[in-house]
Amino acid sequence: MIVSLRSLTNRVETVVVGVDADPCFWTISEKYKLLHVKESGLGQISFTVFPKMIGFLPYPFISVYGYQHKRSNSVSSSFH
């Protein structure tokens, strides 16, 4: 699954993209990834998603979270 993002602001930023789905229908190997949005406001990332059955399945849910990297003596990150 490929997630393409177009930001409303043209600035470089990093966001967290999450993919979640019903485990009865889908297998998702990595649910959260960091997406680096370019100066143009565009970003793209891929997830490995496998269906567990044949047929019309509900789409996985996609979430986007702000990401702020704080620099101090110890490196820490936080989600908004």
Q: Looking at the structure, what is the overall shape? A: elongated
The major beta sheet can be summarized as:
4 strands, antiparallel
Oligomer category = single chain
- Spans with pLDDT under 50 lasting ≥5 residues? none
Order of helices and strands: EEEEEEEE
* Share in β-strands: over 45%
The number of helical runs is 0
Question: What is the SS-derived class?
Answer: mainly beta
- Count all strands and give the number: 8
Mean pLDDT reading: 86
Q: Radius of gyration from the CA trace? A: 15 Å
Numbering strands along the chain, what is their spatial order in the largest sheet? 4-2-7-8
Organism: Onchocerca flexuosa
Protein name: KTSC domain-containing protein
Which helices and strands, and how do they pair?
Layout: E1 2-6, E2 13-20, E3 26-28, E4 32-37, E5 42-46, E6 49-51, E7 61-70, E8 76-79
Antiparallel strand pairs: 1-5, 2-4, 2-7, 3-6, 7-8
